Amino acid sequence: SSDTAYKYIAVSEPRPGVGQVTLNRPKSLNALSTPLITELNAALRTLDASPSIGAIVLTGSPKAFAAGADIKEMAPLTFSEAYTTSFIESWSDLTTAVKKPLLAAVSGYALGGGCELALMCDLIYTTTDAQFGQPEIKLGTIPGAGGSQRLTRAVGKARAMELILTGNFFSGEEAARWGVAARCYATHEELMEETLKTAEKIAGYSKVAVMAAKEVVNKSQDLALRDGVEFERRVFHSLFGSNDQKVGMKAFAEKQKPEWTHS
Ligand code: CO8
């Protein structure tokens, strides 16, 4: 394992086909510094390229998924520095470079950039008492890693506007009720167990179909309905060219378990 190469994260394979990245900067509640994001991007690229991995879980500690971008790193930045170095832009690598499903398991604080990082993942599971929020307004700034756009798409304008203007936190229970998270669980242990179980299930399907499914669902967030439906149909048609679509349908007809070839 390449674990030892990382300082701010840990990488493991807790279940067959499941890669896990654990944010590990406990002294600052997993504040997302540039070096941490650089490691995260490298780990995700490695897992995405690994033929044995079918799904990726991103998590933090029971106390904090991530308490935001690193405020101490941001404090001295000038406009020119932020602008010319495209500060925060590399965070989006997560949404553009990773083709395998990325599941966020969120316990504790998911604030500011931490909330935005979770929102960049394909699926969020959380704990009832997790604390989500976009508190940037309290620092004299605004969300900068997609929060105003992704949170608004997830919860609607009324709630997003209230959350972003007040900086109020919302619970994991609310996140699940409002559609930010797919599910919430009573404890961190239960959260991890259920997230890994779901990831393992996804990793057991054809990688071609899984990647296509992730791609078409995410497209719904970018495209108008008519274009999205058209895009879905094109991708659906293209899967007639995959081996696994034949494998899956033949196995169904023969009442056999499909043996995916991932091709
Ligand atoms: N950045 C840096 N350090 C942090 C951060 C952070 N976001 N959050 C916590 N820490 C540090 C604290 O400074 C403290 O360090 P130290 O021990 O050296 O004093 C340590 O972590 C523990 O934190 P606390 O003592 O504060 O722990 P509490 O349990 O008392 O409080 C809270 C926990 C409520 C989570 C509190 O730490 C807090 O409010 N943190 C900041 C939350 C926040 O405002 N997040 C949003 C940051 S802004 C942002 O993410 C913008 C993203 C996009 C920017 C785009 C710009 C272009």
Provide an overview of this structure.
This protein is of the alpha/beta class and 263 residues long. The chain folds into two domains: 201 residues, 2-enoyl-CoA Hydratase, Chain A, domain 1; 47 residues, Lyase 2-enoyl-coa Hydratase, Chain  A, domain 2. The chain has twelve helices and ten strands. A six-stranded mixed β-sheet has the order 1-2-3-5-7-10, with helices on both faces. Strands 4-6-8-9 form a four-stranded mixed β-sheet. The radius of gyration is 19 Å and the shape is globular. The mean pLDDT is 96.
**What separation lies between the terminal Cα atoms?**
26 Å
Sheet of most strands: 6 strands, mixed
> Which ranges are low-confidence, i.e. pLDDT below 50, for 5 or more consecutive residues?
none
Overall helicity: 40-55%
Element order: H for helix, E for strand: EEHEEHHHEEHEEHHEHEHHHH
Average pLDDT level = 96
Short description:
This is Probable enoyl-CoA hydratase, mitochondrial. 45% of the residues lie in helices and 16% in strands.
